[in-house]
Amino acid sequence: MDPFGCVKNQVDAENMMAFLDGAGWVSASDPGTADIIIVNSCGFIESAKRESINAVLSWKKNYPGKKILLSGCLVRRYEKELAESLPEADVLFDSEDLSGIVPAAGKLAGEPPEAAGIPRTPETPEAGKRPLLSLPGSAYVKISEGCDNRCSFCAIPLIRGGLKSRGSGGILAECRALLDRGVRELCLIGQDTASYGRDTAQTESRRSVPADSIERLLTAISGLAGDFWVRLLYIHPDNFPFSVLDIMAADRRILPYFDIPFQHGSARILAAMNRRGSAETYLDLAARIRDRLPGAVIRSTFMTGFPGENAGDFEQLLDFQEKIRLDWLGVFDYSREEDTPACSMEEQIPKKISRRRRRIIEKRQIPITGKNLDRFVGGTWDVLVEERLEGGTQSGPLYLGRLYCQALEVDGSAVIVPENGGEDPLRPGTFIRGLVTGRSGVDLTVKKL
């Protein structure tokens, strides 16, 4: 399997592996011994599309005798076009029903249709027991699929459809199973986790059944026993559920880490993006979070080069960046996606201008992130150990891990120096207590206590 694409696609890849395992397939650590190489693609933006196609071409070039199965968002959106233009992919699999990976793989292996191995069902068997592709101790838990926000630049509704929330009972069962396996960080994900349950609320209200919501889900997870973290990712700023702040204040395990894609600081551009907020409302949102939870960490994404973005709009974005003082920030060039409202907008911005503006924002963010990280230096924190570094130092081994302020795969790391020269090796996937002794760029140095 190729765990390719965004983290939501990673969960799909893990679930496909679970279906294949259940049908008797065996995951190969060496592609040279595999019968099939699966590329799980992303079709969200142009760079991800290119990377997905290049992955297929690369695997086929390096292993010409292997069968390539292409799955994921790219296939869902461009299946017909790919069938005509990408012969290197032997089978295309629209992953809307993940259980279909079994007959798709069987087709490549020459199996008859009746040898699919398992009944087709949209639910992964034995939730929480799938193979995990994350670093030890962490797992992503998808709570919803699709999105109803309809941002004018975004192709997700075209690929994934509208919001479809999972039932809270299934999510809780998955969380319990993952914790029983030793997972210590549950990362709740969806295109917009703030909207979780809104698609089923009307139906459930007619049945006099309490509607699922992110607040009810977090409260239920808070009732689980054990020492673990819950990290809530991808919260649309226009839907922010302020009641989660009280839940986080009451249970330290639900981390005060907020991944909120503000995208811009110009009211004109935000309106063109089909956003309801403004720089002022977003600044107020950040202030309310920080007032209620002084230890809050806020990550965001900005977009440069949106159609019509002029010099004045960009200056407003820079002013917003300076005022909001984000802990972490990712900056992306606008990607013109066909069939989205923004695709047909006038005043498309040249890519060289978008890239220049992105680099300016990235450069200005470096000292902001550094200063925000400095507040952790000198403090004692829980650290999730992830892996041992090769080599180490003369005094002993080094390890990588993360504090609560560092999300999996996107933020900096904690470099851990064990006590006693490493005589007692650290176990990846477990918590330690550590003193943050310094900062190097976006990484923190930790001494195990």
- Give the total of beta strands: 16
The whole-angstrom Rg is 23 Å
Could you say which structural class the secondary elements and strand pairing correspond to?
Answer: alpha/beta
As residue ranges, the low-confidence spans are: 1-5, 115-123
Summed over residues and divided by their number, the pLDDT gives a mean of: 87
Shape: globular
- Rounded to the nearest angstrom, the distance between the terminal CA atoms is 39 Å
Q: What's the story with the biggest beta sheet?
A: 5 strands, mixed, barrel
Question: What fraction of residues sit in β-strands?
Answer: 15-25%
SSE series: HEHEHEHEEHEHEHHEHEHHEHEHEEEEE
Query: How helix-rich are the residues, as a percent range?
Result: 25-40%
Total helices: the number is 13
**Taking strands numbered 1, 2, ... along the chain, how are they ordered across the largest sheet?**
12-13-14-16-15
Q: What is the strand and helix layout of this fold?
A:
Layout: H1 7-22, E1 36-41, H2 46-62, E2 67-72, H3 73-85, E3 91-93, H4 101-108, E4 138-142, E5 144-145, H5 156-160, E6 164-165, H6 168-180, E7 185-189, H7 198-206, H8 214-222, E8 229-232, H9 244-250, E9 257-259, H10 267-272, H11 279-292, E10 297-304, H12 311-324, E11 328-333, H13 351-374, E12 380-388, E13 399-402, E14 414-417, E15 431-440, E16 443-448
Helix pairs in contact: 11-12, 12-13
